[in-house]
Design a protein that fits this description.
Length: about 450
């Protein structure tokens, strides 16, 4: 019985044998453990400890490393407008990008649980993670291209704009000042100096467009006829020259769809658009009015949004980052969601909570540890963001999109030629990352003690 009690850990159980001298608690000799850990220590020292130490030492010397300058490089950093812009943009990245990516990952992870094709959706969202930052930067540099014929973002923006706002088809047209009665009247419009009379066709010749550049297949223009208030809008030019200026000559092309307004006392009393042959007809109320071609006939076509201009370049690059990393956040959060006790969710529904309340008061608190891991990981990641900014931002806007990692490169190797300042920026980046790492380590220790 005594042996049974001892073997089962009862009151008379024998104490565990002490480890032999020179061995660890697992029975491995100390020199064997050190031998196996030595390669890891060597790599850690060569790739982490030495670069950090050298960067701190190098940040105390001048550009070529020959003269000791103390903390002068750190002072130069905060006296440089480019570096201050980089600090501001880095703060924007840290505050905005991780929060958006985590929120999208949470939404995707929760919603994909409720659809049959959730696995396919997760695969599609996660696919950008397989693309390098370099490739993603090139892709989004093309997506944000200003020309709607090349940039997908502006192609969509132009399509939406043109759906609600009609654009001019004759942006470069203008009156033939030598023979036309049309004169500039402000805001890009043109108004006749004389008035129009019924039975006398109004001649509104325009120039400034090559006949072979007219949209569609324009018809030949003809002189308007009839007893009403009529007129003709046409291109007063034909290939090969010839003809009489101010009159419709054979072969001259009509300008279809030009809006003509009749103005009396500063008010528009009637309006019409020119037909396929360039003619238009106004109601009798237009008799005695002046004719005006509004600026909408000549406005430049809408070319989309300047995504990579000084104002939007940082949000545009953050959008590219979100596209890449939303899948990463979704997969981690979905893994955490798979471990949530479904009985808790069902109990909340039985108690009368709606889906929003279940999500906000049950799902999110249960996922809080996972969300913190994702958020902290992304915060560390965006502090060293470099590739996307360097590739996507064009040269004129690069200063406005600058971040600390990019400024480090520019100061050291990109023309600045000052490795002292570059090393100081690297040390500052390390100091910014350390608090986040400290919080993460404390959280991991608390999780381990539970």
């Amino acid at each position: 019985m005594t042996s049974v009690a001892n073997s089962t850990g009862g009151a008379g159980a024998l104490p565990a044998p002490a480890a032999e001298p020179g061995k660890s608690v697992t029975g491995t000799r100390l020199w064997v453990a050190v031998l196996f850990l030595l390669p890891a220590f060597v790599l850690l020292g060569a790739l982490v400890v030495y670069p950090i130490g050298y960067s701190i030492w190098r940040s105390l010397y001048d550009a070529d490393g020959s003269g000791f300058v103390g903390l002068k490089n750190y002072g130069d950093i905060f006296a440089n407008d480019a570096t201050l812009t980089a600090v501001r943009n880095t703060a924007i990245w840290v505050a905005v990008a991780p929060a958006i990516v985590t929120a999208l990952g949470l939404i995707f992870a929760v919603l994909t649980e409720r659809v049959r094709w959730g696995t396919a959706f997760k695969l599609i969202v996660f696919m950008p993670m397989a693309i390098s930052m370099l490739a993603a930067g090139i892709i989004f540099r093309l997506v944000y291209e200003q020309d709607p014929n090349l940039g997908a973002a502006n192609a969509v923006a132009k399509s939406i704009h043109d759906t609600f706002v009609s654009s001019s088809v004759y942006p470069n047209a203008r009156p033939n000042a030598a023979v036309s009665d049309l004169k500039p009247s402000g805001g890009g419009s043109f108004t006749t100096t004389g008035t129009v009379r019924a039975g006398t066709p109004a001649m509104l010749p325009l120039v400034g467009i090559a006949p072979n550049k007219l949209p569609g297949s324009p018809e030949n223009a003809r002189t308007a006829s009839g007893s009403g208030v009529t007129g003709t809008v046409w291109l007063d030019f034909k290939l090969g020259g010839g003809g009489t200026k101010g009159k419709v000559d054979p072969g001259e092309k009509a300008l279809k769809g030009v809006k003509v307004e009749a103005v009396k006392g500063g008010k528009v009393v009637a309006s019409a658009k020119s037909g396929a042959d360039g003619t238009f007809t106004l109601p009798a109320s237009a008799d005695g009015a002046r004719l005006r071609l509004p600026a909408s006939n000549f406005s430049a076509p809408y070319n989309g949004i300047d995504w990579l201009g000084p104002t939007l370049v940082t949000p545009a690059i953050i959008g590219a980052y979100v596209w890449m990393w939303a899948g990463f956040a979704m997969v981690l959060i979905a893994a955490g969601l798979a471990g949530v006790d479904r009985n808790l969710l069902e109990a909340a529904r039985v108690d009368g909570a709606n889906e929003w309340q279940v999500f906000r008061r049950v799902t999110v608190p249960l996922l809080a540890p996972v969300l913190v891991v994702v958020l902290i990981t992304l915060m560390i990641n965006v502090m060293k963001i470099f590739d996307l900014v360097y590739i996507i931002a064009p040269q004129p806007s690069q200063d406005d999109a600058n971040v600390l990692a990019l400024q480090l490169f520019l100061s050291s190797f990109g023309g600045g030629g000052n490795e002292g300042v570059g090393s100081a920026i690297g040390v500052i980046l390390l100091l910014l990352v350390l608090p986040v790492m400290f919080v993460n380590i404390r959280r991991l220790r608390r999780e381990r003690q539970r």
